[in-house]
Amino acid sequence: MRAAIALGRRALGTTWPNPAVGCVIVRDGAIVAQGVTGPGGRPHAEVQALAMAGEAARGATAYVTLEPCSHYGQTPPCADALIAAGVAHVVIAAGDPDPRVDGAGIARLRDAGIDVTTGLLEDAATETLAGFFARVRLGRPLVTLKLAATLDGRIATGSGESQWITSTSARKTAHAMRGCHDAVLVGVGTVLADDPDLTCRVPGFTSRPCVRVIADSHLRTPLMSRVVSTAGEAPTWILHRDGADPNRAAALSAAGVRCIEVTADDMGVAPTAALEALGQAGLTRVLAEGGARLAAALLRADLVDRLAWFTAPGIIGGDGWPAVQGMGVSRLADMAHFTRVAQRAVGPDLLAEFTRVL
Ligand SMILES: NC(=O)c1ccc[n+]([C@@H]2O[C@H](COP(=O)([O-])OP(=O)(O)OC[C@H]3O[C@@H](n4cnc5c(N)ncnc54)[C@H](OP(=O)(O)O)[C@@H]3O)[C@@H](O)[C@H]2O)c1
Hints:
The chain is of the alpha/beta class.
């Protein structure tokens, strides 16, 4: 199961709207085949592994990170494929909360006389499936907020200079993070200040089609910006409010940008509506990279599931940009609270990772 989980983890960011599932087939104590969800979600991991195993699947044990599907979608059910291949035992890490499955895959296997074990390494597998689970259960992608700040929590100088606060090593790590997310999300303030590419530029990850998403109520993203001028090479989506200039929307669309209208609030596009729109579009894992206003909006709306916080060993001072804009918190009891789950040095910087306290 550890091998199956590792397979799934390597496919993160490539399988949306489907989960990144891993499958390993074992016979007589040896691995005879393995499979992982293909790009865009197909083929499913079990189908790939069964094809590799051929006759060796008969009487074998299949380890799958997610309950095999039991419904006819664009492909026949994986539970049926396992039954037809003569697999004797299926070991499943986590159940599939998709209402079309939700225990029906397990029941189908058991009804066919297959021995089924559930819950093996469930927590570790759930970690790789969390984006899919968020989309099924909450109707929105899993959101990781990534920020790079100084020791005093500044992400730019008062004049707006932010490139670069952290080291090359930290930036490479951040690029690899993009590679295992379906999309990167920033506010238009960051596009106007930095004109970023928002692509994944570390070896091994460059071909990953990470979607660039910009929260931009009034379609202020410049047509000459990097995210727009490269929209033909990597997807660029803009979330805007109603009443945004239709001529601008047409020009951006002509440049290859997907413009998505969402409900607005006082601050811009409403964060909950924005993330629901991204969920409807199929995204399961979003890496929000700021800036300060968007970070505050997501935190205020309680939409940040994970934090990836790089700290550079420098101090800018109070006239710099805070990592997070004002959130109107007056009582400590009301602050956004997280649990630290990991920390490590990345070159001269620190990376601390947190999950939300529910
Ligand atoms: N070090 C880092 O990790 C890091 C990362 C990113 C940015 N930065 C720096 O941060 C600075 C930019 O910060 P920023 O706060 O101006 O940028 P931002 O958060 O990227 O963008 C803010 C803009 O996003 C739009 N927006 C749409 N919906 C929103 C909502 N619900 N809530 C808030 N904003 C929404 C608003 O413009 P409209 O009203 O026009 O929609 C708003 O002005 C730059 O200096 C940049 O270099 C640093």
